[in-house]
Design brief:
Length: about 475
């Protein structure tokens, strides 16, 4: 079914949802994977052709370990061929955990009366941002529970506040948000505050499963959440992030639904999601996990590879919910952004570990599995020859749709992304890196400069690196 903005009135709940459960169920049931059709789908993706739902069903239905390995190899090849080795770094900043909803899986749910509820004061936000800047962060995602206190005006206020904090060489150059769905007016308000990406996850795209996990509060309305990004687009926010919480329902269904959501946004608004997230359910206070849908490491790594092949021009975000070993593996399949130095307990970026233990036991939403500092994450990325990047150039130059350009415009990555990654890494080295990390960083930069070929004038980048060494900041192409 094709959707167009005219045909699809997002305010009208009587319209069919763009998620057709029957269609996805039938594809999952009736699609048979053979060596021939799996290889044909991988080849199609490597040929830079978009995959449809049927192609994706062929990949998720594969059971043969040899073919699964070929899918992973396909994702690795696509990543190397198209994206190179940049990894963009960010950190989440939890602003408030008050919540009227009762999502079964979340430590912030209203019924969890043991959770300590807190909203950071303006002073606390400033202190937290200063601590994040002291570590070298340049990109944040602000996270909020759903509560009458977190109005669009309040969210816009916190975004502006974060942008205003400058400490030493530190500044936050891109603020993304993860907040409950708003109406069109609300989205306009937060757009005006200069957000980067607005991100909201459907959690599960299966309406029946959704009902089961969302018993109270506004979030129980599946359709309102499903159409959140349509309203964001209507409000002029064309930079949106989608996601599913893996572990609530059959992962294969969620993968197909994410592809369908991507196609829907592209068909209606001519721009697909900027990013796709695939958080995997973690332990949280009072959680009651349904074992049959828990996603194993094997299936998780496989689904990341399948998503890479299916939506090759969308950024992929992997968070510290996953262990450093899993992160290391799936980075190779084309993840483009990871968080580093993450703390999800409210107010903990600016506290030392002992205060944190004593005061904050019940302020986190779930457990994370990678608690390394940003410095350690960067150090390991450099060891593995990745190019850590804090680039925010496209967003600030109004170059939207950069993932699509990366994918489709020859030389775009080397000309802009690699060059800017090099410059932001040079800044990080000058301002924050330990000597041993700095040494590795300059080596990676030298190698990158060597690999740029004709697409970007190496002398121009070298000249800017010299300017950075002499104290200039925020240089980009
Ligand atoms: N309250 C807003 C909402 O629900 O959209 C935004 C913030 S919520 C804190 C961000 C995301 O965390 C949720 O969309 C959900 O996918 C994820 N999350 C919640 N509980 C989780 C858990 N136990 N394990 C992993 N991720 C979880
Ligand atoms: Fe509230 Fe979001 Fe947690 Fe649901 S996932 S309980 S809406 S914070």
């Amino acid at each position: 079914m094709q959707f167009t903005p005219e045909k699809y009135n997002i305010e009208d709940k009587s319209q069919h949802s763009f998620i057709d459960v029957k269609e996805i169920d039938q594809l999952l049931e009736n699609t048979h994977s053979t060596a021939e059709n799996v290889r044909a789908v991988i080849a199609k993706s490597l040929n830079k052709e978009r995959l449809n739902l049927q192609d994706t069903a062929i990949l998720v239905n594969t059971k043969d370990p040899v073919l699964i390995e070929e899918i992973k190899q396909g994702a690795r090849t696509l990543k190397e061929k198209v994206y190179g080795n940049r990894i963009v770094l960010f950190a989440p900043l939890y602003i408030g955990n008050k919540c009227v909803n009762n999502c079964e899986y979340c430590g912030f749910k209203a019924s969890n009366t043991e959770a300590i509820r807190k909203t950071l004061s303006d002073e606390e936000i400033v202190t937290e941002v200063e601590a994040l800047e002291d570590n070298g962060q340049k990109r944040l995602i602000l996270v909020y529970g759903e509560h009458p206190q977190y109005t669009p005006e309040y969210i816009a206020h916190t975004v502006n506040l974060v942008y205003s904090v400058k400490k030493g060489a530190g500044e936050i150059r891109r603020v993304n948000i993860n907040a409950a769905p708003l109406d069109i007016e609300g989205f306009k308000t937060i757009k005006d505050s200069g957000i980067g990406t607005y991100q909201v996850f459907q959690e599960t795209y299966h309406p029946e499963a959704y009902k089961k996990y969302h018993l109270g509060g506004h979030k129980k309305d599946y359709h309102k959440r499903l159409t959140a990004l349509d309203r964001a687009m209507e409000a002029g926010i064309d930079d949106v992030g989608i996601g599913a919480l893996f572990g609530l329902y059959d992962w294969r269904f969620e993968v197909l639904a994410l592809v369908r959501h991507t196609n829907h946004l592209e068909a209606c608004y001519n721009v697909g999601p900027h990013t796709i997230s695939f958080p995997r359910l973690q332990d949280a206070a009072m959680i009651n996990k349904e074992d049959k849908y828990i996603v194993s490491d094997e299936d998780f790594t496989r689904l990341v590879a399948i998503l890479r092949l299916a939506v090759p021009y969308t950024g992929m975000i992997l968070t510290a919910r996953e262990s450093k070993e899993i992160r290391k593996e799936v980075l190779r399949y084309g993840v483009s952004q990871i968080d580093g130095g993450t703390k999800i307990e409210l107010g903990n970026y600016s506290q030392d570990e002992s205060q944190f233990e004593a005061q904050n036991l019940n302020k986190e939403q779930f457990k994370i599995n990678d608690d390394r500092s940003l410095a350690d994450v960067i150090d390991e990325l450099l060891d593995d020859s990745y190019l850590p990047s804090f680039c925010t150039a496209c967003y600030r130059l109004g170059r939207t749709g950069e993932h699509f350009m990366e994918f489709s415009v020859p030389g775009f990555i080397k000309r802009y992304c690699s060059a800017n990654a090099i410059l932001t890494l040079a800044e990080y080295i000058m301002d924050y890196a330990e000597p041993s990390t700095a040494k590795k960083g300059w080596e990676v930069i030298a190698k990158q400069l060597n690999d740029l070929g004709d697409y970007q004038r190496v002398d121009e980048i070298e000249e800017r690196i010299e300017r950075i060494k002499n104290g200039e900041r925020d240089l980009y192409f």
